[in-house]
C-alpha cells in the first residue's frame, strides 16, 4: 500500500507485509527513494473511519517481534489515519504506482 505525506504530490513510501489481527493492523514500511529507511507500523481501529497507532524504525529491537508492538508504545512515533469521505480522486503518482505494479 503506497502513500504520500499530508497531500504531497508524490509517493514517498509503501506499507507491505500487512496483517490484520482482530482490530489491529500490523506490518512494515519502507521509503521508496531510500529503502534503507524502513520499519514497523501498528494501527488500531478506533471507529469506522479512524485508526490510530504509530510506527518505529526497523533498527529498534522489538521485544517478542512485531506482534508485541502494541504493548510497547514507547517505541512508536504516533499517527492517526482518518478516512476521507467522499474519497478524493486518485492522484497521478498513485495511478503511476498501480500501472508499474501491472508491469511486474
What does this structure look like?
With 104 residues, the chain is mainly β. The chain has one helix at residues 92-103; strands spanning 2-3, 13-21, 24-31, 38-47, 50-57, 77-82. It has one domain (2-103). Helices cover 12% and strands 41% of the residues. Strands 1-2-3-4-5-6 form a six-stranded antiparallel beta sheet, with no helix packed on it. The radius of gyration is 14 Å and the shape is globular.
Distance between the termini: 16 Å
Gross geometry: globular
| Major beta sheet summary | 6 strands, antiparallel
Computed structural class? mainly beta
Number of separate helices: 1
- Tell me how many strands there are: 6
What series of H and E elements makes up the topology?
EEEEEEH
Q: Uncertain spans, ≥5 residues at pLDDT below 50?
A: none
Q: Which percent range describes the beta-strand content?
A: 35-45%
Amino acid at each position: 500500500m503506497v502513500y504520500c505525506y499530508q497531500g504531497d504530490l508524490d509517493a514517498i513510501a509503501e506499507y507491505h507485509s500487512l496483517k490484520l489481527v482482530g482490530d489491529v493492523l500490523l506490518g512494515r514500511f519502507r521509503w521508496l527513494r531510500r529503502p534503507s529507511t524502513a520499519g514497523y507500523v501498528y494501527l488500531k481501529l478506533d471507529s469506522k473511519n479512524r485508526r490510530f497507532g504509530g510506527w518505529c524504525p526497523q533498527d529498534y529491537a522489538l521485544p517478542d517481534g512485531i506482534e508485541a508492538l502494541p504493548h510497547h508504545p514507547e517505541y512508536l512515533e504516533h499517527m492517526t489515519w482518518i478516512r476521507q469521505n467522499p474519497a478524493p480522486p486518485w492522484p497521478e503518482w498513485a495511478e503511476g504506482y498501480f500501472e508499474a505494479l501491472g508491469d511486474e
